[in-house]
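One thing: can you check what follows?
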Amino acid sequence: MISRYSKETRVLVAIDCIIFGFDGNGIKLLLVQRGLEPEKGKWSLMGGFVRPEESLEHASNRILKKLTGLEDVYMEQLLVFGAPDRDPVERTLSIAYFALIDILKYEKQLSDEYHAEWFLLKDMPTLIFDHTEMVALAKKQLRYKAAMHPVLFELLPEKFTIPQLQSLYEAVYDTDFDNRNFSRKVLSTGLLVKQKEKDKKNSKKGAFYFKLNKRKYTDHFKAFLNFIPNPEKLLNGF
């Protein structure tokens, strides 16, 4: 029985976790200060090596919890980054995972051990290795998923207002929508169910609450592409 492949070079496999968060104002990125050389002390994604006995999913969750304290975060695999010189120490393949979470929901889990910190995407510091490229690709994939699936609604309360929904989409797509035009296009989709109650805390007149009809959304999600900027270009990029 062959125990190892002969004449083959061993390659390390790493995991890098890209965690986007929304706090009601903007999309942020969670970063830590790297704890080992090279580039020790510089800002980095949450990364570590896969152990021989564990699955990729187990490794990603273990690494995220160890470096930030976060757990029970559903992450999706993004891409494998394998440039021969991406890590100056040894040949290392990195499998990137990403997620979008509600910052307020997870803020109590954050550990101070590795000084995990949230940065607005526009204020993101210089990152080590190819991590900036990872973040850029993850952001594109996030926008794609936001157009194709109701993932953004998971960051909103069950009942939400049109201004709350607009604020979230503006943050993800880094653009400003005309208030009236946004409201008109959103309501024209027929995918939102108007409630009787109003939010009177954040506006003088009070904004009506809405709920997403999830079953109808699943069947007619393309209706939401009416107000996504450049949807054809976005969706054809993947």
Q: What stands out?
A: DSSP finds seven helices and nine strands in the chain. The CA atoms of residues 149 and 221 lie 7 Å apart. Strands lie at 12-22, 27-33, 43-44, 46-49, 76-81, 92-102, 117-120, 192-199, 207-212.
